[in-house]
Amino acid sequence: MPVLVMKFGGTSVADLDRIANAAAKVRAEVERGHEVIVIVSAMSGKTNELVKWVSETATFYDAREYDAVVASGENVTAGLMALRLQEMGIPARSWQGWQVPILTTSQHGSARFIDIPRTNIEQKFAEGMKVAVVAGFQGLSPENRITTLGRGGSDTTAVAFAAAFDAVRCDIYTDVDGVYTTDPRITKKARKLDRISYEEMLELASLGAKVLQTRSVELAMRYKVRLRVLSSFEEVTETSGTLVCAEEDIMESKAVVGVAHSREEAKITLFTIEDRPGIAAAIFGPLAEAGVNVDMIVQNISEKDYDEAHPGAVTDMTFSCPVDQVPRARRAMEEARARGAINYDDLIIDDDVAKVSVVGIGMRSHTGVAARMFTTLAREGINIKVISTSEIKISVLIDRKYMELAVQALHDAFALEGAGRS
Amino acid sequence: MPVLVMKFGGTSVADLDRIANAAAKVRAEVERGHEVIVIVSAMSGKTNELVKWVSETATFYDAREYDAVVASGENVTAGLMALRLQEMGIPARSWQGWQVPILTTSQHGSARFIDIPRTNIEQKFAEGMKVAVVAGFQGLSPENRITTLGRGGSDTTAVAFAAAFDAVRCDIYTDVDGVYTTDPRITKKARKLDRISYEEMLELASLGAKVLQTRSVELAMRYKVRLRVLSSFEEVTETSGTLVCAEEDIMESKAVVGVAHSREEAKITLFTIEDRPGIAAAIFGPLAEAGVNVDMIVQNISEKDYDEAHPGAVTDMTFSCPVDQVPRARRAMEEARARGAINYDDLIIDDDVAKVSVVGIGMRSHTGVAARMFTTLAREGINIKVISTSEIKISVLIDRKYMELAVQALHDAFALEGAGRS
To answer: Which positions in chain B touch A62 (Cβ < 8 Å)?
Structure first.
């Protein structure tokens, strides 16, 4: 019997009525002939309550105890969902992470999957169980302690189960009805995509379209799990939501499928640094150790004259990071300079920038995407501060005040309002 | 190093401040040189919330799912308590039932202990851990499912751990400061006992002095666990609380140590039943099946004349049960009569009675306790409806309106206000 994985997030199981609503969607899939594995989050608000208790109890908390406390929210939902399904006459039972068992590493708070053995759940399916309700976000370490996967980890749990059980699809039920060409709060022309490739979804997820956890999309791509994002609060049809799938499952490929944005960015430039092998490592090593998530990096050849202070070739280095990490980045650079690991004349921070990106696998075959993007921004009078590109993405840093304007103009320029691709 | 078990009930861990207060008491015991096993209940109110969710989700719930949901409350407290202790600099960790593992039968909702292997916890003690915080009330079935022991099961967990680890003592922290000679709400002369024997405590617990779960006292008696009941909200000293211990640890033995009462009792009499072998089984079998907790039983030889309807010897049978079980008891009797299993002329219910008991191991050596009890009640004009005795207890059923008067008079008559025994 084909296995389907369905995942319900916190807002989809926020109270008993919503659990009943989610259970009805599960029943519909059982009636369509699936064996279903349901992954549940904690009832919305519960995880925050538990996290608050932990941080009020201990300043520097033991991550193992944090995990043991925080994982309990999902256990409650799993039991209630199983009960609700049973009440509807569907053979169901709950599974906590250690019961499956969901084997993970010991990195508490951000554990990684090692293995999800199928034996226990498959045996129950063989005995007539139709639905296995699994507590998301958690696992079991080699030391027999409860681990968690980090916030949003239930998406990842769902994909991992879909991979482990060769599921026909992994449906992620959430409070939005799919992935959009851009943020609908910025332009009403934003349109739901019927399909998107893993690669595009990854770029969009990491660029700030917070529908799916990046890690879950990576996992889906690696194991070719067909992922569908859809709303818990709407009737489900064949065309509901957005299917995240392999490139070859997408017929038409427009050059650009979406415009992403990230508002709280900062740009940091180190002026007049030595241009020598190892200088990048000397800069970005300390930043990584300080926990700074460096995003774009640009190195300019500086055409300065030779001077006594800098006898070798010199250059400038610019990078971006989230604006709230600027103090950490500055301290890391100052410390590195103080101990002689790097040398720079000046460190300039621009913490008033935003990032706008266009994404699409079609870029590989369509030429002129970059040109059109830059022309569009120029026409609006928007200055580009940094450019960075990947095979399927072009990102620019611009003044933050132009962010909405840039998104709207690019959405128009690439005709994203047009008929959806399928 | 001597192991001490400390158990904190729901009101003792109701919020983060109270958890901190309980943790301070644990620290004091660590400083006195103990390795401590702490058994915690759910934060007060939490279990009720979870139970409510379960019963609102499913009418006839799967007890296995009920247990999985309801046990999560204790897991939260265990983690928070471990964190709080760590914050105080005490090496501690939490243990959920399946991690110890606490092996129980599969009777979900009222599971029984099979074994509590010491290996895992002892290994951590050997590595320098000072406190193992264990989630009470739960265990693990042979099918790898979470079980619970029934309400109040955390007391039983505590005693079972004390037995398994040969603990020097099992301290039960609660919201009262010990076991009293009688209910202080009925007479201000009620006095805290310093010591009480297991047998006496069992009689008092089952008679309505709700300080300790009956099952936990039974278990303590079987394994000779020294149990101390004391308040979470008072300074702990050497003489705090009440020690429940073996008879030989009690120096002085007064005839009577306490007067217990149970308000909501009912008396049911079956008139003119056949007096033949097997008639008691024919009556009390159906009552047990109907879930009626029969307490006192009295059979009178009826001196009625022979008549046609009852050719053999006849008798009357009287028993008592909690007043809310009367409808069930009546139905069970009527059904048994309808199918010819028993025969009676009349069934009379008196649902306006209460039970008052005097308890004391000293009764075995002191004579005249019954006589003094009956004389005292007679002097107050209280009619005795049923009498039942055990080796260390005399109970009577009386009109409910006289209950307080009877307790007060007996407390005076046996001089329980006097100096405590030790």
So the answer is: 82-83, 86, 93
